[in-house]
Design goal:
This protein is mainly alpha-helical and 463 residues long. Helices cover 69% and strands 5% of the residues. It has 3 domains: 139 residues, MgtE N-terminal fold, CATH 1.25.60; 122 residues, CBS-domain; 170 residues, Tetracycline Repressor, domain 2. It contains 23 helices and 5 strands.
């Protein structure tokens, strides 16, 4: 009996995303190993630049460098911009100066600054010297801003028009100067003769109005203005608060100098979240190309601090050495008290640090948050102290010991819950980053309170 070829094809299992990706990576590696630059380009151009960047980042470090050297001035700039910092820096090291200069010349100022920042100072100076004076000075002004400021995020290319222009005049002007327009923009900014910002007209408003409508009549007040020196984290907060897709950047005199768009802000949000996560874990870096030695150096300082805090807790325990010698059960149950208390405090700390980052703790909301965490700690403490005391009773058949551990657990939970929010609030008020130092203070104090309450009560009531 003949078999239907179509049914055979249909019976073949579909490849998973991981299998498809593995095939694409293998195809890319084969083209690189064979030294065929056109095939490498063909593989990359089959994908969106972000997906092509992901493919390259799967390759070993040596293969990425080889790809950059193989493609040279044909390396796609959109793919380069989509690569993560450590990978992009690796590629930039291998690209010729002429290609980088041309790429930077054709980019919006924010992306141009991103590539310039990847270069060593001497290469940066050489490439800047290749530009005309006006363009060079413009880029130097951008590079002069702090790396995490709005001045670095903003692009100096934007669309602005006087308030007496009509919709038709603005559209015609944009079409006539299409090459000078930013790659992505969402608003036309309305300015006065001194270039001070008056308002903004969104593109959807432009599309909904007649060509004869004056911009001054259909413009809306700007919901948020950004200064060039504003921290990028504050910029991200403003975008989130007002649901912005773009925002104007104005100098101290109110003159329009640039704009920030949502694509850059999304990157900032990701970066800030990653930094906070690392800080809470006591890790300063997690780059793909970190060596064993650099990883050790980034983590060792916080581990050294933890050694000191651990010995502080050990000193507290040493005060009750005689009590532990006489009641061995205390040594068995001590870890339960501090472990549960530490976990409870870490939960509160994570919520508090996130709330501080989101600007959710201020004024009366702070008092409500402290009350909420205190009551939650009390409820959790009651539930788990009863549970642990019952386990301790059935294990050791000692009512007094069960009562002691219940009271110690409740005290530790209350301390952990309250300190989990009070410590980051205090550090924030003192100007320190709560994400960096909170966990060390929290876990140390929880250990001390846990051991003091449990062993202290045991000394008083069990001996």
């Amino acid at each position: 009996m003949d078999r239907d070829p179509e049914s055979e094809l249909a019976a073949e299992p579909e490849l998973t995303e991981d299998e498809i990706e593995a095939e694409q990576v293998a195809e890319l590696e084969d083209a690189i190993d064979s030294g065929r630059p056109q095939e490498v380009l063909d593989v990359l151009e089959q994908h969106h630049p972000a997906d092509a960047a992901d493919l390259l980042e799967i390759l070993p470090r040596s293969a990425i460098t080889e790809t950059a050297e193989l493609l040279g001035d044909r390396f796609p700039t959109p793919v380069l911009l989509e690569m993560r910092d450590e990978y992009r820096e690796l590629v930039v090291e291998s690209l010729p100066d002429e290609h980088l200069a041309e790429a930077i010349h054709n980019l919006d100022s924010d992306d141009a600054a991103l590539l310039l920042d990847d270069l060593e100072d001497d290469r940066q100076a050489v490439i800047l010297e290749s530009f005309k004076k006006g363009e060079r000075e413009e880029l130097e002004r951008v590079m002069a801003f702090d790396e995490e400021s709005a001045g670095r995020l903003m692009q100096r290319e934007f669309v602005a028009a006087p308030e007496f222009w009509t919709v038709g005049e603005a559209v015609d002007h944009a079409r006539e100067h299409a090459e000078a327009l930013p790659d992505v923009f969402f608003e036309i900014y309305v300015i006065d003769p001194a270039f001070r910002l008056l308002g903004a007209v969104s593109l959807h408003t432009i599309l909904r109005n007649q060509r004869s409508a004056p911009l001054g009549e259909i413009m809306q007040p700007v919901r948020a203005e950004i200064s060039p020196d504003m921290d990028q984290e504050d910029v991200a907060y403003i975008f989130q608060k007002y649901d912005l897709t773009s925002a104007p950047v104005v100098d101290e005199s109110g003159r329009l100098t640039g704009m920030v768009t949502i694509d850059d802000v999304v990157d900032v949000i990701q970066e800030e979240n990653r930094e906070d996560l690392f800080a809470l874990s006591g890790v300063s870096s997690a780059d793909a190309f970190d060596t064993v030695l650099s990883t050790f150096r980034s983590r060792a300082p916080w581990l050294a601090v933890n050694v000191l805090t651990a010995f502080v807790a050990s000193i507290v325990i040493s005060f009750f050495a005689q009590t532990i010698d006489q009641i061995v059960a205390l040594a068995i149950l001590m870890p339960v008290v501090v472990a549960l208390g530490g976990n409870a405090g870490s939960q509160t700390l994570a919520v508090s640090v996130r709330a501080l980052a989101e600007r959710e703790l201020s004024g009366s909301t702070t008092r409500r948050a402290i009350f909420r965490e205190g009551m939650s700690a009390l409820l959790n403490g009651l539930v788990f102290s009863i549970a642990v005391s019952l386990i301790a009773y059935f294990w050791f058949r000692d009512v007094k010991l069960s009562v002691v551990i219940a009271i110690a657990m409740l005290a530790t939970f209350l301390w952990a819950g309250l300190s989990g929010i009070i410590i980051p609030l205090t550090l924030k008020r003192l100007g320190a980053d709560p994400a960096v130092a909170s966990s060390v203070f929290l876990l140390t104090t929880v250990d001390i309170i846990g051991f003091l309450s449990f062993l202290g009560l045991a000394t008083v009531f069990l001996l």
